[in-house]
Amino acid sequence: MRPAKDYHPPMSLGAGLRFCVAAGLAVGLSCVQVRAAGLPARPASACAGTTGPDRLLSLTPEGDLVLSAGGAARLAEIRLPDSGPARPEAEAWLKTLVDRPLLVTTGPERDRWGRLPVRIRIPDPAGGTDAAEALVESGLAMVDPGTGETLCRPELLALEETARERNLGLWADALYKPLDANRIDRLQDRFGTFVLVEGRVKSVGERRQRVYLNFGGHWAEDFTIIIPKRTWKTMTDRGATAASLEGRRIRVRGILEPWQGAAITVVVPEMIERLDNARPSR
C-alpha cells in the first residue's frame, strides 16, 4: 500500500513472522525473523499518500471499490482470486465494509483504469483492522504490487506465507498453489495469468539491459525470470549477485509470459523469495 507520511501501521499482525525477501538473497538469509523496520528503506515518493475519512459505497462486479470521496479504487499491493470459492468469500468480506466509517490512505496517482490505489483501515476500540492484511491473512487475497516498482509493505508476504502453509482460502485450491518451474507444460497452460512459480536457478545471464535467471539447461525452452537492469541495480545495492542466486531455490510471482519457454518479468525485488530452508509447497 501507499501509507501517508505520518501513518505507521501496528506490527501486531506481521511483526516477527517469517518471510523471505530479495534483500537477503546474497547474504545467506532465507526465511528469518525480521521486522518491517529492519528492511531496506522504500522510496518515500512511491509509498507516500494522503489519509482521511471515507466510506465504501459499493463493490463493482470486477471487485473494485467505489468510495464516497475517492471514487473508483482498489486495495493496493494485493489481488483477489480470479475464481474459485475464495472469490465470493473475499467479495462478501469487502461488502461488510459498505457504509461503515473508514480511514483511507490513497496513493499518489490513479492507474490506467482510473482506480486509486488505497489502503483501508477499519477503526475499532482495539486500534483498527487493516483490510489488506485481514484478507491476506485469511487466504482471501495474495500479494501483488501490480504495476508499481515498490512493495511498500513486504510484511504482507509473511501473512500470505502463513495462510498458504495452513491451506486457508484460495491456498486450498490447486489453481493457486505454486507451480513447478520444471513443468514447462503446466506453465504454458497458464500464460497470461498471475501465478507463483518455484524452482532452482540453474544459471544467471547478465546482459546490458536485462538479467536472466534460467531454470533449465535450454533457456530457449525452459522457464526464465527476466529482471530489468534498473531492478537488478536495486537488488545488487541490497547485496545480491549472480553467484549468490545460482543454485538457489526461489519463488517468484507475476504474470506468465509466452517468452521462449515461459517467463515472468520482475520489477519489484521482493517478488523473488529465497526458499533454500523452506519446506516445498504442497
From TrEMBL:
InterPro entries, from UniProt? SNase_OB-fold_sf (IPR035437), Staphylococal_nuclease_OB-fold (IPR016071)
Pfam families in alphabetical order: SNase
Which keywords has UniProt assigned to this entry?
A: DNA-binding
Report the protein name in the record.
DNA-binding protein
Taxonomic superkingdom: Bacteria
Q: Where is the TNase-like domain?
A: 88-173
Q: Which GO terms describe its molecular function?
A: DNA binding
SUPFAM superfamilies, per database record: Staphylococcal nuclease
For the keyword S-adenosyl-L-methionine, the answer is no
What organism is listed for this UniProt entry? Microvirga thermotolerans
